[in-house]
Amino acid sequence: MNDKAPLQPGSAGRFTDAKAALACVRDIYDRNTAYLRDRFAAYTQGEEEGGRNRAYYPYVRLTAVSGAAVDTRLSYGFVEGVGVHATTVTRPDLFERYLLEQFTLLLRNHGVPLEVGVSEEAIPIHFAFPNGMYVEGDLPPDRLTKLPDLFDLPDLARMDDTIVNGTCDTGPDAVKPLALFTAPRVDFSLHRLRHYTATAPEHFQNFVLFTNYQFYVDEFIRLSREIMEPTGDAELAAYRCQYDSFVEPGDIVTTNQNLGGTLDGASAKLMRMPQMPAYHLKRPDGNGITLVNIGVGPSNAKTITDHIAVLRPHAWLMLGHCAGLRQTQRLGDYVLAHGYVREDHVLDADLPLWVPVPALAEVQRALETAVERVTGLSGFDLKGIMRTGTVATIDNRNWELRDHREPLMRFSQSRAIALDMESATIAANGFRFRVPYGTLLCVSDKPMHGQLKLPGMADRFYRERVDQHLKIGVLAMELLRGHGMETLHSRKLRSLAEVAFQ
């Protein structure tokens, strides 16, 4: 057999050991993507022999033969009912820990082997380059024209979210999905993440903070670099033994000097920042913290969460500023969202407005505890600086210029206490993608009560509150991690007929 030829569709083996199953997946993926990269290199040199160059993703399949009850205390790790369940898989190097856990749980819960093989889903040539090579950039016009005749290209029809949205109609006897995302959908998002954030998917951590202001980014950079140093704030001592590196846009890495690191990436900068830059305070187990500056607006919020979701993070939180809607609120007060009014519109086609987006008790407790510890307040005193209530998210930044009677009525009827442009989008996409979510905002203006967000007022407010707010967000992530994944990944986010993978 030609060692350079791609493996063709068909079963490669049945496994009762999760590590062996994962090794087989990796062998198929590595061999088939290597073949495509080799053939593309030859094509750039003018070679066209052999006709179409096609290779396929690996698949994982489980055939459940019994409807016997399994341990459902976890929200994932088992299939619903008898039948065949399968998914295509990509980047086993990136998802090694994740896939190993999913395989282990399936084998334990169902007691039948996992089948691994080569699917009939072709790998697009662009996705054979995990590091994001711009395929077309190396080709002259005549070679570019012939590219679709010799290689498979990304096909949007293969990358939709019908599984996530519950609109995938497989029929009673068809193969049911084993995961929320197919391999092409995952690959698409991995490449978009690099484009939007200027960091490789490998750097993303399992706990993600979103913010809409650069002030939070500046403070996160300062905090992360200080953790990397052997001396500094004594409060950070516990963090210095947990986080091994800090990554900035452009994949600029600063390693922890307390753990033997020597590289300081602080002086290197990108000439042009990406649309939504990401910063990663990394742990060896992947359970560190990623911060993404999504900017202003629900469109960015949906875009980035659409793509980060394929990495299967353990939680994401929104830390940002909002308009306070109550006379009793003061600038700098916190708002812990327990409900959302969704007027962002970007998810209306994916998640109907009649679907409630509930607050998650585990996340709410972590955020409230973090506020208590950082501010030193508790009980009745905590009510002096934080309110729990409904947050309204709107897609019109200049809503203040509309006839006030309509928004005033809606805010009053919904009992909204704050307004922003991103929180409901992030929460709704968390609900849709089964990613635990939460929101802690800080009141930066009260436009309905004459306190507008003007430059002088805003700058002073940001300087006084950002440091504390970010510390609360980081501590909340630490608390969520400490509670354990069994508690965090709640069954309340799972649908009636759910896929097995988390």
CATH class identity of the largest domain = Alpha Beta
Distance linking N and C termini: 38 Å
Count of distinct strands: 15
CATH superfamily descriptor of the largest domain:
Nucleoside phosphorylase domain
What is the H/E string? Answer: EHEEHEHHEHEHHEEEEHEEHHEHEHEHH
CATH topology annotation of the largest domain: Rossmann fold
Structural class: alpha/beta
Instruction: Detail the poorly predicted runs.
Output: none
Q: Which whole number gives the mean pLDDT? A: 89
How many distinct folded domains? 2
- Which value, in Å, is the CA radius of gyration? 24 Å
Strand content: 15-25%
Range of helix content: 25-40%
Using the 3D structure, state the CATH architecture of the largest domain.
Answer: 3-Layer(aba) Sandwich
* Anisotropy-based shape: globular
Major sheet attributes: 5 strands, mixed
Strand order of the largest sheet: 1-4-2-3-5
Number of distinct helices: 14
Which quaternary structure do these chains form? Answer: single chain
EC number: 3.2.2.4
InterPro entries: AMN_phosphorylase, AMP_N_sf, AMP_nucleosidase, AMP_nucleoside_Pase_N, Nucleoside_phosphorylase_d, Nucleoside_phosphorylase_sf
Domain AMP nucleoside phosphorylase N-terminal: 20-173
Enzyme class: hydrolase
Short précis:
InterPro entries: AMN_phosphorylase, AMP_N_sf, AMP_nucleosidase, AMP_nucleoside_Pase_N, Nucleoside_phosphorylase_d, Nucleoside_phosphorylase_sf. This protein has 502 residues and is α/β, with parallel strands linked by helices.
